[in-house]
Amino acid sequence: MKTLRAARMLTCDRGAWGSGALGVLADACVSFDAHGIHWLGPAAALPPELPAPSQSAALITPGLVDAHTHSAWMGSRHEEYVLRMGGASYQQLAAAGGGILASHRALIAASEDEVFAELRARLQRMAALGVTTVEVKSGYGLTREGELKQLRAMKRAAADPGLPRVVSTYLALHALPPPVREAVPLAASVANYVATMTGDVLDEIAREGLAVFVDAYVDVGAFTAEQASCLAERARANGIGVRLHCGQFADVGGLDVAARYAAASVDHMEHFAANALDALARAGTAAVLLPIASYTLRQRPPDTDALRRAGVRLVVASDANPGTAPSESLPLAMAMALRDYGLSTEEIWLGATHYAANTLRVAGRVNATGQLAVGAPADIVAWDAPAEACILQPWGTQRTVGVWRDGVQIA
Ligand SMILES: [Zn+2]
Q: Which pLDDT tens digits describe the chain residue by residue (411 residues)?
């Protein structure tokens, strides 16, 4: 058992402490071990049978929860990034063999061991930034075997208690691999590919426990709502949850699929038809906002007012990937959510902790809560900054002084 003391403690447990949405305590202690948080409250009320504080910090918060990443990628796309900044479009880069296909080639060339080693190093860097739970998508294999290799490397990371908790997503429909997109007739080739990626591979993924969620890239030039429905149907039959990339470039009907299958989240949302939002809110589907991606692509931010009005919960994530969101930093995404998306400090902190964790909890298989509360897993970050807004400004500095996941110090 260990006790930490903080001048300011954010519990993100609305209503439990104080009057605000973030449940703030002044001069507080938290006692915990690997089984969870045993006690928290004002330092003056620390029960004498609990250990005295072994460490003090200016600020203590729940561990950050990054609900959308592609962090099991291989290789680097720095050359493509330079071209993009020089004016080349996403579609031009894709046509030149860059984009997702460049990461696909690197993933196919790597062994499962190499994918695991790269992912582990990336997760360690995320932990140092205060992140204790990371959703990781496959989606660079683009073949049945390639995807399974990536998912198995992710499962090894998920089994390591010294890393942030990994929640795996099978990104079944991300892009068409070259043999599929070059085949004639194209329509039959695509239909065959979708059938393969959404077929009995899902049964195998469920049997091996390789993914908690499925995902599809539903957009213009990517996959259709109908194809995403095939995936969601097979996922549901296997007890696997659904998240969807929707509306990054256009709304092509993904939100209806998300509502129909009670998806945990719809992610991106730069473009959406407002009349689809009520069904989404009724289904309890959250919007995962990805400000680093829209910033990189110089896009207009999503209409967050419309999402709020409809009662859709807002989550903020990094979208960490080697192309359109070239950062591993959830705190940077949080800073951009304040700067560019007009979210309040409270919305951002809940969206990167408790609300993010809620989108990852499926049938009791993921226990992250994104809150400091008695009985919750001890996912805790100590910071050398005096207030939660100091993590949103200044940008790009690392302010953690201790990070615990399930009571084990991981950074
Ligand atoms: Zn993504």
A: 999 999 999 999 988 888 788 999 999 999 999 999 999 999 999 999 999 999 999 999 999 999 999 999 999 999 888 888 888 887 788 777 788 999 999 999 999 999 999 999 999 999 999 999 999 999 999 999 999 999 999 999 999 999 999 999 999 999 999 999 999 999 999 999 999 999 999 999 999 999 999 999 999 999 999 999 999 999 999 999 999 999 999 999 999 999 999 999 999 999 999 999 999 999 999 999 999 999 999 999 999 999 999 999 999 999 999 999 999 999 999 999 999 999 999 999 999 999 999 999 876 778 899 999 999 999 999 999 999 999 999 998 999 999 999 999 999
Query: What are 377's two structure tokens?
Result: 């897993």
Residue 199 Cα to ligand 1 midpoint, Å, equals 22
pTM of the model: 0.97
Distance CA 350, CA 6 (A): 20
User: For residue 198, which amino acid is it?
Assistant: T
Instruction: State the distance from the centre of ligand 1 to the C-alpha of 49, rounded, in angstroms.
Output: 47
Based on its alpha-carbon atoms, the radius of gyration of the chain, rounded to whole angstroms, reads 21
Q: CB–CB of 381/400 below 8 Å? A: yes
- Ligand 1 centre to CA of 247 (Å) is 11
Give me ligand 1 centre to Cα 27, in Å: 39
- Indicate the residue type of 171: L
